[in-house]
Amino acid sequence: MFNRVAKPLIYAIVGLGIIGFGYKLFTDTSSLFTELLIGALVAVLIVGAVYFFLSRRNGGNSDEMKRYRQAVRQSKKKYGQTQSSKFSSKMKPSTIKSKVTTKQKQMKKDTPQLRVIEGNKSKKKNRASL
Q1: Sign of CA dihedral 86, 87, 91, 95
Q2: 95 pLDDT exceeds 90?
Q3: Whole-structure pTM value
Q4: Nearest to 79 by CA among 115, 101, 106, 98
Q5: Which helix (H) or strand (E) holds 127?
Q6: I need a surface site. Which of 28, 44, 74, 85 has the fewest CB within 10 A?
Q7: Tens digits of residue pLDDT in 2-58
């Protein structure tokens, strides 16, 4: 039921918009371009404001975010950047094979970066009594 009413209504609104745009283009071109420019500037300001407030809410420059970015940089430095699949599909098979083997050799040489998590290591459960 909704489709039967909505489709013609949308077509009518779009048609009236095209007619209005054409009329304004032929009768008052300078004001049309001025209105389009002002509309674009308002859209940019709104999108910029929304982006600014959302990035602040999601921890844009918090201490935790800074530590995360530093960890990402260290990871990229250690392991290198990965290529997307569309680039790797264009490469020759021999090139892919040689890159995979060199990466495997490099991974075997590098020791993993591990961090000790402190906790109660002295407590051990008596699993026989459970």
Answers
A1: negative
A2: no
A3: 0.40
A4: 106
A5: none
A6: 85
A7: 788 889 999 999 999 999 999 999 999 999 999 999 999 999 999 999 988 887 666
What is the rounded distance in angstroms from the CA atom of residue 93 to the CA atom of residue 54? 44
DSSP annotation of 89 = T
Q: Which of 88, 118, 121, 86 is nearest to 103 (CA)?
A: 88
| Whole-angstrom distance, CA of residue 73 vs CA of residue 69 | 6
Question: Is there a contact between 24 and 31 (Cβ–Cβ < 8 Å)?
Answer: yes
The two tokens of residue 54 are: 């959302």
**How many angstroms separate the CA atoms of 33 and 25, rounded?**
9
Q: How far apart are CA 79 and CA 87, in angstroms?
A: 18
Is the separation of the CB atoms in 32 and 24 below 8 Å?
Answer: yes
> For residue 61, is pLDDT > 80?
no
